[in-house]
Amino acid sequence: QDNAPCYKGRIVEDHSSDFQVMPWPQNSPDLNPTEHLCSCLENQIRDTTLPPRNEREVGERLVPDT
Description:
By secondary structure, this protein is mainly alpha-helical. It folds into two domains: 1-25, no CATH class; 32-65, no CATH class. The protein has helices at residues 10-16, 33-46, 55-62. The longest helix has 14 residues, at 33-46. It comes from Parasteatoda tepidariorum (Common house spider).
């Protein structure tokens, strides 16, 4: 949790007391699977010869027809 005010309300604190909070490094993109996925998708798009012209082409390049 990032100390945002939404985590400080009584109802949230009462509910979250049932859970064990695991330590997590502050800035850890290497532990974030979304960062890896986005990187792979970005590389896949970048490796194409021409940039996609629209969202449909982006989707077609990420999930080619088989």
